[in-house]
Amino acid sequence: MSEQVVKEDVINPSEVCYRAFELLRLKAFDDAEKLLSNCLSKVPDDVSRALFHSTLGVLYKMKGEFKNAWRHYERAEKLIPNDPALKIISARLLIDEFAEYDQAIKKAKKVLELLPNNPAFKHQAYITMGLAYVKKGSKKNALEMLKKSMEGDFEGFISTKNIDFHLCEAVLKKGWAENDVKTFLEKSFEFAKKHEESDWMETIQKMLDQFPKEGEANTDNEITGVNHKL
């Protein structure tokens, strides 16, 4: 299987990872691991090795082996320490599986230092910090991150799929600041409308429809349906 992407010891990292992700999609975990491990031992440059370690991290995360996933993400990050995507990925894993919220916040802040003018990565960094603050029970900081994540109305994003709704869901589950979440969704809807993404417009409108209309009373269960759509 690996012969398709490894010929005469010439490794094309992009082709290897593309094949590995195809195998992961088919849940052929053993074949993907063999392919990546074989290629990992044959590339000398740090970027290629980091790419393979990162993909192995995805593999182990899909298998539910989170310690192994973290080990590979950590190795990837050591090889290319200024890669913002790796910092976001590893920070989310720290939040979701290891309750290492302060370390996750530190990684997200580093992303802001590395790319202070990149709207997509700034958004992901604020969302990541917000999720950590939700887990810590810090309502004030979580809501501050939610507001920061929508600064500029997502200007500079390529598509609505770049908007991360996970913090909205986490905030709603806590019963915090429904109006802030609604504002986030309204801004998302306007972005989708501007970019003529009708599927996203329909999805976000369904989320917004779960909120009480003007003059209607709020109840604890009126917007529970939003959580399942985010």
Description:
The protein has helices at residues 13-25, 29-40, 46-63, 66-79, 84-98, 101-114, 119-136, 139-149, 166-174, 178-194, 198-208, 224-229; strands spanning 6-7, 10-11. It has 230 residues and is mostly helical. The chain has a domain at 1-81: Serine Threonine Protein Phosphatase 5, Tetratricopeptide repeat (Alpha Horseshoe). It is globular, with a radius of gyration of 20 Å. The model is unreliable at 224-229 (pLDDT under 50).
Give me the CATH fold name of the domain at 1-81. Serine Threonine Protein Phosphatase 5, Tetratricopeptide repeat
Strand order of the largest sheet: 1-2
Distance between the termini: 38 Å
Beta-strand content bin: under 5%
Helix coverage percent of residues?
A: 55-70%
Radius of gyration: 20 Å
Main sheet specs: 2 strands, antiparallel
Total strand segments: 2
Mind telling me which CATH architecture of the domain at 1-81 this is? Answer: Alpha Horseshoe
**Oligomerization:** single chain
Number of helices: 12
CATH class of the domain at 1-81: Mainly Alpha
Question: What descriptive keywords fit this protein?
Answer:
2 strands, mainly alpha, two-stranded antiparallel ribbon
Layout: helices, strands, pairs:
Layout: E1 6-7, E2 10-11, H1 13-25, H2 29-40, H3 46-63, H4 66-79, H5 84-98, H6 101-114, H7 119-136, H8 139-149, H9 166-174, H10 178-194, H11 198-208, H12 224-229
Antiparallel strand pairs: 1-2
Helix pairs in contact: 1-2, 1-3, 2-3, 3-4, 4-5, 5-6, 5-7, 6-7, 7-8, 7-9, 10-11
